[in-house]
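Onboarding guide, step 5: your first structure request.
Type a short instruction followed by the sequence, for example:

Predict the 3D structure of this protein.
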Amino acid sequence: MFKIDNLIVITLITMVFSTFSFAEENSAVALAYKHDSSELQWGPCPAFLGKECKIAVLQGDPAKKNTDVFFKVPAEYDIPYHWHTSAERMVLVSGTMTVKYDNQNEEVLTTGTYAYGPSKHPHRAYCEKGESCVLFIAFEEPIDAFEIMKSTQD
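The system replies with structure tokens like these:
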């Protein structure tokens, strides 16, 4: 009887500690943002992307893995040829954007379109006439962007 009682106590203690560990891991606050919310704090993009380009961090730390951002540029705006260390999972939230990855056909993204950009895959984009483009981007790795000079894209 003593052995069974000890087993039950050990099992209960294990369950309690497991519950606390699970609660700590899942203690992040749920959140939701609209792309035009006044709560968003917009900051600059890397300089080569231009002063009109803005980024708002939605979740995470840009220096660490798994960060989500809104990326915003005005209508009729060229996003220069570049690449990222991380893959990008994206959804266009507003506007119309034309995207061209090396060795692939050009794609026109409209509001609600999902797009995936492989890591280290050079690309460029253009926000079409009309509404500014806001792109939700989920980065798997720390956020970076590296410009590719025009002479190397020929």
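Each response can be followed by summary notes, for example: Residues 6-24 have pLDDT under 50 and may be disordered.
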